[in-house]
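Hi support team,

I submitted a single chain yesterday and got back a structure, but I'm not sure I'm reading the token output correctly. Could someone confirm the output below corresponds to the sequence I sent? I've pasted both exactly as they appear in my results page.

Thanks,
R.
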Amino acid sequence: MPVSLLTMAPPTNLSFVPQKKAQIHMTETIAVLFIFFILILFGLIFYAQFQKSAFKEKAEELLQKRATETMLKVLFLPELACSERSLSEDNCFELAKVQAVVDRKLFEGGTGVPTEIDQEKRDYYFSIFSYATIKVQQLSVDAADENDESYVLYDHPLLKFTKSEPTFFIVALKEAPDTYHFASLDVTVYS
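Hi R., thanks for writing in. Yes, this is the structure output for that exact sequence:
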């Protein structure tokens, strides 16, 4: 059986040393890459947390803005405003108009059998107020008087809301030509 002399030659140390240095360099490169990717991972986690908190702040800011806008829409509704000879008073609701809105459920679409007109009213006021609760609370001058009447003008809360933003404003409630009461306009919006 023929034997080759090349296969029987003992390995030399010169070929083993460069291979060991290459292994050390490769291990160092892998360690540097591992640390680099760990730093990138920490940066991404920090950025995600920052974005999450910024998103929550922006959502809260938008809810407050919507509450203010809804409050302003209610304050300037001609259905409630005090008016005499085509002149309107600022921050004033007529008590008769408020009671009519509550009794007839004008903002809710009416009473009785639902009709197409009632649905149109409901859709119209929902496009103005969205998910909100609007109340007018008559305030008395005497602290002992607990006969303050509350009128719920619009009540359409979001069923599973995560946050609500109440907004309050003091208005005049006109009962007769020269009789005024204080009232609190409470608008709560939901998200």
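A quick pointer for reading it: The mean pLDDT is 84. Let us know if anything else looks off.

Best,
Support desk
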